[in-house]
Design goal:
- The protein is of the alpha+beta class and 589 residues long.
- The protein has four domains: 234 residues, Bira Bifunctional Protein, Domain 2 (BirA Bifunctional Protein, domain 2, 2-Layer Sandwich), CATH 3.30.930; 119 residues, no CATH class; 70 residues, no CATH class; 151 residues, 2-Layer Sandwich (Threonyl-tRNA Synthetase, Chain A, domain 2), CATH 3.30.980.
- Helices cover 41% and strands 21% of the residues.
- The chain has 21 helices and 20 strands.
- Strands 1, 2, 3, 4, 5, 6, 7, 8, 9, 10 and 11 form an eleven-stranded mixed β-sheet that branches.
- β4, α4 and β5 form a beta-alpha-beta unit.
- The longest helix has 36 residues.
- The radius of gyration is 28 Å and the shape is globular.
- About 3% of the residues have low confidence.
Length: 589
């Protein structure tokens, strides 16, 4: 209905963009429909014209801890219509009002609508223009509230396109709460008002703290699909809309009875939200899988929190993961990428559940022993050193240590934990810098050794002119820059992969020897030691294949690396190529 309404008014439907923003390092995920359209808000011509309409999948991570209440969602769908230098406030507001109140569309009684507008600041004046339009449409002045930047100024971050907005709320009860006259939309924290539509007049840009005009006056609107459906049906929460109820039913299927208390309701909302969000993040065209950094950490956190919550309700975490198939069934026709990634989504969810259950079992045993020890001596605080040991040795997350401690009426010295964590990072900084590692985790160390194999294989396939020009290694991948005159052929990439995997499959011990720089040169070791090293150096040898001086660290045996895969080969500058590669996880016994 929404798409058809705006198509009738000259808009072109555009597809939902990926959850991973392109060329925007300021955010982890697409949090609003404006992200994919940022270049066009700044004046670039959109191939579909100046009037656009879409539905956009979004993920917001700032409210993860709030998920479980009736309104917050990690993943949600946003309906949006856009004007790129075309119509402005009058048309935007008039069409919003028509779609919401007309009997041909949503038929919401106008008396249930409340409006907020921008009250102005030192640069941008009060939005009297929007208020006049609302008054002309019949919204009385007492239901129009002017609020400041905190409420009615929209931007995707501290820099970039921005502007004042007017927000539309539905009045759920028709009467003020105990705050009386202060019970106002956007201000009062009671559940009387529910925001359903936000019309942003994206006409400004903030750079270095200064606000300037964009080339065009744009309109960027967003209507929360789940919130609107909940309000149209007078439902008590967004989790009571049909799709989320079906996900909840799939998760609770093994339970003979489901508690009606608020704690159970909150737990089920967390399981529903986190499952749907995980499915969409993993199933995105730019798939993000669980890891310890960036986007991967977000999805890992969602899954691991769900494991704990599921166990508390008596639900098998693997059944929770299996319920992802129901999510794909519900959304696959609208988002075909989910159907294409059905097996991948399911396997990643189950694998992460398994990894975390292993971590939980090992870490919980140690943590319970520490809790018993503290109780025996009358202590009330788990010291940071113990918490850090659990994190460093067993991968037991600090937030889980805090949660378990709280359940036992104990506290964790988080400040002490952070001190130990900082000391650990400082101690290992030299090694990380020497090898280009982002950290010294087991995963990153595996990738570090893989770069040595990759370097040697490239020299064999392409020639001795290949030398390392840089590397960047994280827990999820390696990035290796090397000198070469042009793009590699598929055959060359396949041969390099075959050589690296051959050394891994032979399970060769990695040898280390300390020698002077002249000795390293005479032995044929390769590396950038002229620039970075003085005195003695460590030389790592994979006999018969690779000899490089390096600050380490490395695995003991090439067999520890798993399966090697080149993901991408591209230019990194004149005469420099870049390879990104991944190691598939080693199968646990």
């Amino acid at each position: 209905m929404y798409l058809a309404f705006f198509v009738d008014r000259g808009h072109t439907v555009i597809p939902s963009a990926s959850l991973v923003p392109q060329d925007d390092p300021t955010v982890l995920f697409t949090t609003a429909g404006m992200h994919p359209l940022t270049p066009y808000l700044k004046g670039q011509k959109h191939p579909s014209g100046t009037r656009l309409v879409d539905y956009q999948k979004c993920v917001r991570t700032t409210d993860i801890d709030e998920v479980g209440d009736p309104s917050h969602l990690t993943f949600f769908e946003m309906l949006g219509n856009w004007s790129l230098g075309d119509y402005y406030k009058r048309e935007s507001i008039t069409w919003s009002y028509e779609f919401l109140t007309s009997p041909d569309y949503l038929a919401i009684p106008p008396e249930r609508l409340w409006i907020t507008v921008f009250s102005g600041n030192d640069v941008v004046p009060r939005d009297d223009e929007s208020e006049v339009v609302w008054l002309e449409l019949g919204i009385p002045a007492e239901r129009i509230v002017a609020l400041g930047e905190e409420h009615n100024w929209w931007s995707a971050g501290s820099e970039g396109a921005c502007g004042p907005d007017t927000e539309i709320f539905m009045d759920r009860t028709g009467r003020p709460c105990v705050q009386g006259s202060a019970c106002l939309p956007g201000v009062c924290e009671c559940d009387r008002f529910f925001e359903i539509w936000n019309n942003v007049f994206m006409s400004y840009e903030r750079r270095g703290g200064e606000i300037t005009d964009l080339p065009n006056r744009n309109v960027d609107t967003g209507m929360g699909l789940e919130r609107t459906v909940a309000m149209l049906n007078d439902l008590p929460s967004v989790y009571d809309i049909p799709t989320l109820v079906q996900i909840r039913d799939a998760i609770t299927e093994p339970l003979s009875t489901v508690g009606a208390d608020e704690a159970t309701a909150r737990a089920l909302r967390i399981l529903v939200d986190h499952l749907r969000a995980s499915v969409f993040i993993i199933g995105d065209p730019t798939s993000t899988v669980p890891s310890n950094q960036g986007r991967g950490y977000v999805v890992r956190r969602l899954i691991r929190r769900s494991v704990r919550v599921a166990q508390g309700l008596g639900i098998d975490p693997f059944h929770w993961a299996d319920s992802s198939l129901r999510v794909v069934d519900l959304y696959g026709s609208t988002y075909p990428e989910l159907e294409r990634h059905r097996t991948h989504i399911h396997e990643e969810l189950r694998s992460e559940c398994e990894r975390f259950l292993t971590t939980l079992h090992r870490g919980m045993r140690k943590l319970e022993q520490e809790i018993e020890r503290l109780r025996a001596v009358g202590g009330g605080v788990i010291c940071g050193e113990v918490a850090f040991h659990l994190y460093d040795t067993d991968g037991f997350p600090i937030d889980l240590t805090v949660e378990v401690a709280r359940e036992a009426d104990l506290e964790v010295d988080v400040e002490d934990f952070e001190m130990h964590f900082a000391q650990h990072r400082e101690k290992s900084r030299g090694q990380r810098a020497a090898g280009g590692l982002a950290d010294d985790s087991e995963e990153a160390i595996r990738y570090h050794t893989a770069t040595h194999l990759l370097h040697a294989a490239l020299r064999q396939v392409l020639g001795d002119h290949v030398v390392q020009k840089g590397s960047n290694i994280t827990r999820e991948r390696l990035r290796f820059d090397f000198s070469h005159h042009g793009a590699m052929t598929p055959e060359e990439l396949a041969k390099v992969t075959e050589l690296v995997q051959g050394q891994i499959d032979q399970r060769i011990d990695v040898e280390r020897e300390v020698m002077t720089i002249p000795q390293a040169r005479d032995a044929g070791a390769i590396g950038l030691f002229d620039e970075k090293y003085e005195g003695d150096v460590s030389v790592y040898r994979i006999p018969g294949f690779s000899l490089e001086f390096c600050g380490g660290p490395h695995v003991n045996n090439t067999g520890d690396l798993g399966r090697f895969r080149i993901v991408k080969e591209q230019s990194a500058g004149a005469g420099v190529r870049r390879i990104r590669a991944e190691l598939e996880p080693i199968e646990s016994d």
